[in-house]
Amino acid sequence: DPPAMMLGIESSCDETACAVLDGEGRVRAEIVASQIADHAPFGGVVPEIAARAHLAALAPMVRAALAEAGIAARDLSGIAATVGPGLIGGLIVGAGFAKGMALATGAAFYAINHLEAHALTARLPGIAARAPDFPYLLLLVSGGHTALIAVEAVGRYRRLGTTLDDAAGEVFDKVAKLLGLGYPGGPALEALAAEGDPARFTLPRPLLGRAGCDFSFSGLKTAVAQIVSRLPPGSLPRGMAADIAASFQAAVVEAMADRLSHALAMMPDATCVVVAGGVASNRAIRGRLEATATAGGLTLIAPPLRLCTDNATMVAWAAIERRRAGYSSDDLAAHCRPRWP
Ligand code: KG4
Ligand code: ZN
Known about the structure:
This protein has 341 residues and is an alpha/beta fold. It is built from eleven helices and ten strands. It starts with a strand and ends in a 17-residue tail after the last helix.
């Protein structure tokens, strides 16, 4: 039998991505184009610009991925696209493209939930010494999502906690903006925090010690804004900015560790802890999460950064997992869903 090749397409936010995986989940091609430069002048993702950029990027990118994998479109047994949650314009571009290709080639179409794709990434061959068994605990912390999820089986997920206000990455971006750093601010803020004194400012630890494992970040953001607003305009010395950054990051780290330990208590059968999302690349956060998991007797699995942030390998892999678990492929009439909890 020829290997069952799966094409994945991701276009739910500001990354256009496609990937080709073989039936075992080995990555044969993986391409990501970030639109950060297109959106940076606006300080955030502009949906209309994102949709047009996906449209311009996708066809040549898919052609390049097939070439990289050394296959033709007719060799694909499946074509998977993210159909939600995300920005509707980009979703329609990616899903429409995938449906058209499926129609033309006869390949099966898979309508993938972006969060399910993040949730299953840790099971991709080669990530962990052994693919994590169900059920495991997922902490998803990105620019758009903040959630603790019990991953019970392919297609079965239970949300234990989420953010009551801003997403974790969003608050990093907003605080970075207050400190005069560029967009996206997370990586710049982490670098600045390394120079600062985390004990200089006492900031709130949102929901610390409270029942459950929800998150809240807006109080922390407001506290930083108040510190900055008390300074004379235009005068934020670098040392002071670094101390604010370090104090802010320390508060986030402590809040996250607390929420994770509560989630672990809510899920005593968890086999391990998996992190995903751009914020998980923060070394202070990752280190503390690892310590928290270890204290609970579990290992922390953190996929490499390229698979933590938005990518299409996870989309193709989710389709392979669904196919293996016995789910059928999806109808070409499947809708895009901007909200899909
Ligand atoms: O997963 P991701 O690449 O995209 C989505 O949001 O879907 O996450 C991007 C978010 C941004 O808010 C960015 O500021 C944040 O992750 N981020 C970080 C770091 N690197 C990226 N936040 C804190 N520390 C970092 N090192
Ligand atoms: Zn994502």
